[in-house]
Automatic annotation (TrEMBL):
<dbReference type="InterPro" id="IPR004516">
    <property type="entry name" value="HisRS/HisZ"/>
</dbReference>
<dbReference type="GO" id="GO:0004821">
    <property type="term" value="F:histidine-tRNA ligase activity"/>
</dbReference>
<dbReference type="InterPro" id="IPR033656">
    <property type="entry name" value="HisRS_anticodon"/>
</dbReference>
<keyword id="KW-0067">ATP-binding</keyword>
<feature type="domain" description="Aminoacyl-transfer RNA synthetases class-II family profile">
    <location>
        <begin position="1"/>
        <end position="326"/>
    </location>
</feature>
<dbReference type="InterPro" id="IPR036621">
    <property type="entry name" value="Anticodon-bd_dom_sf"/>
</dbReference>
<protein>
    <recommendedName>
        <fullName>Histidine--tRNA ligase</fullName>
        <ecNumber>6.1.1.21</ecNumber>
    </recommendedName>
</protein>
<dbReference type="InterPro" id="IPR041715">
    <property type="entry name" value="HisRS-like_core"/>
</dbReference>
<dbReference type="InterPro" id="IPR006195">
    <property type="entry name" value="aa-tRNA-synth_II"/>
</dbReference>
<dbReference type="InterPro" id="IPR045864">
    <property type="entry name" value="aa-tRNA-synth_II/BPL/LPL"/>
</dbReference>
<keyword id="KW-0547">Nucleotide-binding</keyword>
<comment type="similarity">
    <text>Belongs to the class-II aminoacyl-tRNA synthetase family.</text>
</comment>
<comment type="subunit">
    <text>Homodimer.</text>
</comment>
<dbReference type="InterPro" id="IPR004154">
    <property type="entry name" value="Anticodon-bd"/>
</dbReference>
<dbReference type="Pfam" id="PF13393">
    <property type="entry name" value="tRNA-synt_His"/>
</dbReference>
<dbReference type="InterPro" id="IPR015807">
    <property type="entry name" value="His-tRNA-ligase"/>
</dbReference>
<keyword id="KW-0963">Cytoplasm</keyword>
Length: 423
């Protein structure tokens, strides 16, 4: 035997036993965002590398070390998208969707980051994301968060996720704060770990997000962004909290929540769970008022989020909230002998026209009645429709219930549709 080719590390297949949960989740997502008036947008999986450098930021983990970047045959540097917001803004700018307009958009699809694969962290993973453009006020921040809360409710996850909230203020306020933070951390640089030392001058705010317990004390005593906030951002944040409270949504203000992408200002938030171990963030987002202009469009305020589909699937499975998988088929169609098989072909198609919701599996490969009933049973079907030589001659068909003791019946073929409609 020749050697099998394996999938790339960190890139997963989704097998039939799992696609049911994915479809269920996707359907709840689509339905929920549609009920808030959001429309789907699709964009390519590959973009110019520059797009991500200019949006996510040169000195972020994603751009520094996680992107799948390659030179294509024309010599252009291309990158497999590591996230959707930059792509969405690029598409919005390119097609004139953003200037002087409001847009409520969502997307779903694979993203790529060269990270260390582990539970809940993969190299190809999937995000569902949502972006609202053209509205600067806190009401829309509240809307996208209320929408996520409704999603958790729909999925039965409400008691299992917590909302963390923070504000990053204006870029100017953050600049002042950054200087104060660097000064403080530099004065204690003997206590910093390697990662934090590296970030001290490139991305110091990200140090606040460190998971290293040895830094906890140092960071707890660090200057607080809240003390450097500009008036407008402070008011925006207060109003957002007021609106969330009015919506009955609990939240925790976490002054250390900073997010790993550079484009955020004002509101940032994460929904986290304690049920998945270290990879506990299932949804993350915030406001990014400067990004549209930064990518060459006319200034346009925006707010959005992305959620990790794999983590949500894991959570649904861990908590046993995934709906039970349906059997493979509802009805199993059997025919014994070539004549009966030929007779079954138009009957099967007629049934599919009459009952488009029913999943009908037609036996293939011939064999005895006994063998076919075994397959019918295995398919999980509730009903077998049997055309044997006997029935064929009489222009009849037999209906046999596989999971109940309703009596088996042989009826004229002409009555089949109406008979099944009554059941
Ligand atoms: P994390 O802190 O977990 O690395 P992040 O800040 O890098 O997350 P975002 O870029 O904001 O994440 O992406 C939004 C969401 O996408 C995350 O909250 C998570 O649910 C999911 N996600 C991000 N990276 C991965 C990955 N490598 N594998 C699976 N899901 C991911
Ligand atoms: Mg990350």
């Amino acid at each position: 035997m020749s050697k099998q080719v394996q999938a790339i590390r960190g890139m997963n297949d989704c097998l039939p036993q799992d696609t049911g949960v994915w479809q269920y989740l996707e359907q709840v997502l689509r339905q929920t965002v549609a009920s808030y008036g959001y429309q789907e947008i699709r964009f390519p999986i590959v973009e110019m590398t520059d797009l991500f450098k200019r949006s996510i930021g040169e000195v972020t983990d994603i751009v520094e070390k996680e992107m799948y970047t390659f030179i294509d045959r024309n010599g252009d540097s291309l990158t497999l998208r590591p996230e959707g917001t930059a792509c969405c803004v690029r598409a919005g700018n390119q097609h004139g969707l953003l200037y002087n307009q409001e847009q409520r958009l969502w997307y779903m699809g694979p993203m790529f980051r060269h990270e260390r694969p582990q539970k809940g962290r993969y190299r190809q993973f999937h995000q569902f994301g949502l972006e609202a453009f053209g509205i600067a006020s806190a009401d829309i921040d509240a809307e996208v968060i209320v929408l996520t809360a409704r999603l958790w409710q729909q999925l039965g996850l409400s008691g299992h996720v917590r909302l963390q909230l923070n504000t990053l203020g204006s870029p100017e306020a953050r600049q002042h704060y950054r200087a104060a933070l660097v000064e403080y951390l530099a004065a204690h640089d003997d206590q910093l770990d390697e990662d934090s030392k590296r970030r001290l001058h490139s991305n110091p705010l990200r140090i606040l997000d460190s998971k290293n317990p040895d830094l906890a004390e140092l960071l707890a005593a660090a200057p607080r962004l809240a003390d450097y906030l500009d008036h407008e951002s402070a008011e925006h944040f207060a109003e957002l909290q007021q609106r969330l409270t009015a919506a009955g949504i609990e939240f925790e203000v976490n002054p250390r929540l900073v997010r790993g992408l550079d484009y955020y200002n004002k509101t940032v938030f994460e929904w986290v769970t304690d049920s998945l171990g270290a990879q506990g963030t299932v949804c993350a987002g915030g406001r990014y008022d400067g990004l549209v202009e930064q990518l060459g469009g006319k200034s346009c305020p925006a707010v959005g989020f992305a959620m990790g589909i794999e983590r949500l699937v894991l959570l649904l499975q861990t908590l046993e909230l995934a709906p039970e998988l349906p059997s493979q088929a509802d009805w199993y169609l059997m025919a014994v002998g070539l004549d009966a098989e030929l007779g079954m072909i138009p009957v099967a198609e007629q049934l599919r026209s009459a009952f488009p919701q029913k999943r009908m599996m037609q036996h293939c490969g011939g064999g005895s009645m006994k063998k076919q009933f075994k397959k019918a049973d295995k398919s999980g079907a509730e009903l077998a429709l049997v055309l044997g030589g006997d029935e064929l001659e009489r222009g009849c068909i037999t209906i046999k219930w596989l999971r109940s003791d309703k009596p088996q019946r042989t009826i004229p073929l002409a009555d089949l549709v109406s008979e099944l409609q009554q059941n």
